[in-house]
Amino acid sequence: KELAALFSNYVDGRHALQKAPGWNVPIAIKPECQNKKIPATFMSLADEAIRIVAHGKYGLDTYDNVIEIIDAERMRVAYASNGMPISYDHWSFGKKLMQMDKDYNQGKMGLAYEIVINTDPAIAYCMASNSKSMQMLVIAHASYGHNSFFKGNHLFRQFTKADKILDELKILKNMVEDCELTYGQEETEALLDSCHALQYHSVNRYNRPPQRTPEEDAARREKIERDRLYHFDLLMDTTTSSARKFADAAGSQNGQEEKFDPDENLLSYIATFAPGLETKKRELLLQFCKKSQYFYPQMQTQLMNEGWASFWHHNIMRDLFDLDVIDEGMMMEVLDSHSGVIFQPSFDMPYFNGINVYALGIAVFQDLRRVCENPTDEDREWFKDQDIVGNADWVSVVHEAMKNHKDESFIMQYLSPKVMRDFHLFAIRDDEFEDEIEVAAIHNDDGYRAIRDALASQYRLADEQPNIEVVGYNYKTDRSLNLVHKMHNERPLEGDDMWEVLKHIHYLWGFPVTLKSVNSSGVEMDSMECPEKIKPVIPSKQINYFP
User: Fold this and answer.
1) 20 to 30 A Cα–Cα from 202, which one of 63, 339, 373, 379?
2) CA–CA separation, 440 and 433 (whole Å)
3) Nearest alpha-carbon partner for 305 in 502, 150, 184, 525
4) Where residue 40 falls among pLDDT bands split at 50, 70, 90?
5) What are residue 338's phi and psi, to 5 degrees?
6) Tell me, what DSSP letter sits at residue 263?
7) Phi-psi bin for 522: left (phi > 0), alpha (psi -120 to 50), beta?
8) How many helical (H) and strand (E) elements, i.e. helices and strands, does the chain have?
9) pLDDT at 227
């Protein structure tokens, strides 16, 4: 009814989008409806029609949308700056842009139909070369699929502020320009090089309570002291009370003993505690951490995010076809593009590059709907501990999955034996001490669980990035910074790469940096120090320099 009321304002009625000569031209409105506040162009009308289906039928909750049409050159520039409309200048962005220009002009790479940014309002960049059908598809995919994921998923809600990120990037850009005026371009670029080297180690992996102000700290110490005086007899108390521990900790920060503040956010720790770092550089490092934190949820939800957007653009465009808003030709173009996006190449194809996140993501969401609507006995046994089998409200089930999971837990929770069979998945065991590769899991009850565990581990961030923490620094002696690498599955660090990163840490810290690798039992397996200590050369015989 809502769609019928909308299209009743146009000369071509429900076929207004089909008969439009192009997506960038006005649509004919009935004379009696000229004064109404209704969409006047193809893009705005398509957006409104998709919004009615996405919000009204499927309950997608999104930020407001901003749709911008850009050409191939601007799209490549957006690629080079990670899709952000505001960015500071750095040589690495120019290098990336030159490489993409070369590959694009030689036909070695194509460009996406769109880029969408997690902002409030959400900004979607659509290619000017898109046809009418493709513009509708990318609006459904980006402006409603990705947009609703950004607003609904728990990681984005916890770690990003969509309404502030553009302001934060503008502040960072201004800080970089200010540092260039103060320290020069060469020193500023060296500072940014070090930030880029540590960008994956400049995030907080867990939400923490906000840091207390000095006034709150003083009030807390006063309360602890009052409680201690009330509960303990000072003449008889020989224990180390919590108040005394707190006082000792406060005293240690005034230089009485070594401090140990375990922290996985290396860049933030350096910006806060580096002894000789200038104020402007500290502020730039802390601002850079906010940019890294913004991308942190995206690293853990790529499969879910793309699968969710593909799942909904398929459903929305199919509904618009069923309602005669788009015709057969437009729908065929949509399905052709959709099938190409979610195609999973076989392992023996020359362009195989692992599992396609679009394909696996949409397959799990579609299978989740199937389990709700048409479950099998296998589904009842596999999902017996979850309230999804035969659930009449499949829309709520997929929304619940989207909101509360990341890629790793999403696969562990919802990957079914049917999807594993469809993708021909199996697990192998490749032991470096064995001469042969073992097929460790096939399609049986135990094998399905082993395959699911192995696949989920491929999307576990801890398996892909080393866990390095600051454990303090020796500020009473040489001011050296102490780092610990906690090995996962006994995997060591790659020595040459880690040495280059360690040099960046040393550059920012300004004093020696020590890194120790410990295994799961806490036993030290390796250590590295920057700068390296030079062993003294002992002469083979005593030389008398003063005869």
Assistant:
1) 63
2) 16
3) 150
4) confident
5) -60, -45
6) B
7) left
8) 24, 9
9) 67
How far, in Å, CA of 361 to CA of 379, rounded? 19
Contact 220, 212 (CB under 8 A): yes
Collect all residues with Cβ–Cβ distance below 8 Å to 59 and sequence separation of at least 6: 395, 399
Query: How many CB atoms within 10 Å of residue 301?
Result: 26
Query: Which residues make Cβ contacts (< 8 Å) with residue 85, sequence separation at least 6?
Result: 78, 117, 123, 166
Separation of alpha carbons 29 and 12, rounded Å: 8
| CB distance 90 to 192 below 8 Å | yes
CA distance 318 to 53: 11
Mean pLDDT confidence for 337-364? 90
User: pLDDT tens-digit profile of 366-393?
Assistant: 999 999 999 999 999 999 888 899 898 9
Tokens of 53: 């289906």
Q: What percentage of the chain has pLDDT greater than the value 70?
A: 88
**Best CA proximity match to 198, nearest among 284, 322, 70:** 284
Neighbours of 445 (CB within 10 A): 9
Please report where in the chains the tokens 């750095």 appear, as a residue: 90
Q: What whole-number distance in Å separates Cα of residue 226 and Cα of residue 220?
A: 10
Provide the whole-model pTM. Answer: 0.82
For 193, the token pair is 């090089």
Among positive and negative, which fits the CA dihedral 513, 502, 289, 468?
negative
Residue identified by tokens 């866990």 is 467
Which residues fall within 8 angstroms of residue 176, CB to CB, at 6 or more apart? 88, 89, 188, 192, 284
Side chain identity, residue 203: V
Q: Spell out the SS3 assignment of 300-343.
A: HCHHHHHHHHHHHHHHHHHHHHHCCCCCHHHHHHHHHHHHHHCC
* Size of the chain, expressed as the number of residues it contains: 547
Query: Would you place residue 247 in the very low, low, confident or very high pLDDT band (cuts 50, 70, 90)?
Result: very low
Least confident of 130-134, 167-171, 210-214, 489-493: 210-214
- Please give the structure tokens belonging to residue 231: 């509960």
H helices of 437-529, in order, are: 445-457, 461-464, 495-509
- Measured on CA atoms in the order 100, 356, 343, 411, is the torsion positive or negative? negative
**Cα separation, 303 vs 525, whole angstroms:** 35
The number of angstroms, rounded, from the C-alpha of 157 to the middle of its chain's C-alpha atoms is 12
Q: What angle do CA 333, 336, 338 make, to 5 degrees?
A: 105
- 441 in helix, strand or coil? strand
What's the gap between Cα 209 and its chain centre? Answer: 22
